[in-house]
Design goal:
This protein is α+β, with helices and mostly antiparallel strands. The protein contains 18 helices and ten strands. The structure holds zinc ion.
Length: 454
């Protein structure tokens, strides 16, 4: 087996209904020249990200007729019988017609399926899934791009931007799965007074988007037990109210500057309950001390009363360097739970940065590239779906088995880097006829794929 058939097996194992889902996407009306099936076009679009082609035009070069097996492999993935390949504008036309909503819906079905098959259960914290909320810059232009760009002045130049706020589920084996998305634009910035600081603007925009994001998340996953994770800007009345309104728990970073009076009280109460302490040393020799206060009371600027727990963690490494973190959480904190809450909830925020956005920006998925000037959200969701699939392949036991068959320990050892994996996948898609057995859905359902943490 090579990487291509492993992708197919992984797809059919986790998402046996993938083709049926695409069939539920509305059919656009096409010009009568060449008709491409929507299933084929979705796979054409996903290939752009699975093979990390980095720009839409590369579809025409990398998946052209030099690749003798491209059409054959994609036809079987899509259950179609296309005789020719589309060009990149065909994809653009198609996505422009169907819009981004069906692609976002496809992503939702995939996450729902993973949850239903309990593939992610190992990552639960006190029975809840930790869902990180994190915003990032997305598209930046030097000329006005649309009516809704955020603008930012840098000296003489004005930048036109779009930002995005994501809800990312922390799965097992350090997977980070996109569950819901809100794009942030100047409609969010509208009520912020002119001349407000960049921080104030960011805060206003992200808090407004947080409410929409949580509403969308709840609508898509009505029964799911969720614990929102977020940075210090969410530790405020609105951040607590959003969690309450959408029946979620929360772990937010607690920063002294964000809630100064509460911070003072927290420090005073910590001294009054010295028994609330757990200390230990990590295998790397880092000394950790966790302290906490239960039932801390806070009244926000709108007069709403809140009660929650606060945790402080002090770390001292073998060279004596000290660092400190604090969080506010609605979860139960005790001698038994404090380390898990701080580690799996609070400290995991970096994962959204490292394994979510950074990977999507820097690994060849090219998040900040404008794949389209008109239907960019559709490409955004295709990227999220491809990244989800790639993570399941990368962390799944099929790839590990392949590595071991070839005398290597891990996929990274096998390919040199995960970036190289995309190149291998492209080579496989182009030149290797993926065996019929790889497409056997019944067989894919019976195999075991474990997501491996090591
Ligand atoms: Zn714009």
């Amino acid at each position: 087996m090579n990487i291509g058939p492993i992708l197919v097996r992984t797809l059919h194992h986790f998402f046996p209904e993938f083709t049926a889902w695409i069939d539920q996407i509305p059919d656009p009306r096409f010009p009568p020249l060449v008709i491409y099936h929507k299933r084929f076009l979705i796979w054409w679009g996903l290939s752009l990200f699975l093979c990390k082609l980095t720009s839409r035009r590369q579809l025409d070069y990398q998946l052209n007729t030099d690749g003798s097996e491209v059409l054959n492999n994609l036809n079987r993935l899509a259950s179609t019988a296309q005789q020719t390949r589309p060009v990149n504008q065909t994809l653009e036309y198609f996505l422009g017609k169907i819009g981004s909503a069906p692609i976002a819906w496809l992503r939702q079905r995939m996450v729902q399926r993973l949850l239903r098959m309990k593939a992610l259960d190992e990552a639960r914290l006190q029975g809840r899934f930790v869902v990180l909320v994190d915003g990032t810059g997305y598209l930046v232009f030097r000329v006005p791009h649309c009516d809704h760009c955020l603008t930012q002045r840098h000296g003489e130049t004005i930048l036109y931007m779009h930002q995005v706020l994501e809800a990312k589920l922390l799965g097992p084996a350090r997977t980070v799965l996109s569950m819901a998305t809100e794009f942030i634009d100047n409609r969010d910035a509208a009520a912020t007074p002119a001349g407000a600081s960049a921080d104030q603007l960011k805060q206003d925009c992200e808090l407004k988007a947080l409410r929409r994001l949580a509403a969308g998340l709840r609508a898509a996953f009505p029964q799911l037990r969720i614990c929102l994770g977020g940075d210090g800007l969410y530790a405020c009345g609105e951040g607590f109210q959003v969690a309450k309104d959408y029946k979620s728990d929360y772990i937010y970073t607690f920063k002294p500057g964000r809630l100064p009076a509460l911070w003072q009280e927290f420090q005073a109460l910590l001294r009054l309950c010295p028994e609330n302490q757990v200390a230990g040393t990590t295998p790397e020799g880092v000394r950790q001390v966790y302290r906490w206060v239960n039932d801390l009371h806070y009244t926000d600027s709108d007069g709403r009363a809140w009660t929650f727990q606060a945790i402080a963690c002090t770390e001292t490494d073998s060279e004596g360097n000290r660092s400190e973190w604090s969080w506010i959480t609605s979860l139960k904190v005790s001698h038994q739970t404090v380390v898990a809450v701080a580690t799996h909830g609070g400290r995991q925020r970096w994962r959204a940065e490292n394994e979510g956005f950074n990977t999507q920006k820097n690994s060849g998925l090219n998040l900040e590239h404008a794949y389209s000037h008109t239907c960019w959200p559709a490409y955004y969701f295709l990227l999220q779906i491809a990244h989800l699939l790639l993570q399941l392949v990368e962390k799944g036991s099929l790839l590990r088995q392949l590595a071991q068959e070839q005398g290597k320990r891990t996929a990274v050892e096998l390919f040199g880097s995960l970036k190289n994996m995309a190149q291998r996948l492209l080579d496989s898609l182009r030149y290797r006829c993926w065996p019929e057995e790889a497409f056997d859905r019944a067989a894919a359902g019976t195999i075991q794929i474990r997501l491996d943490s090591s």
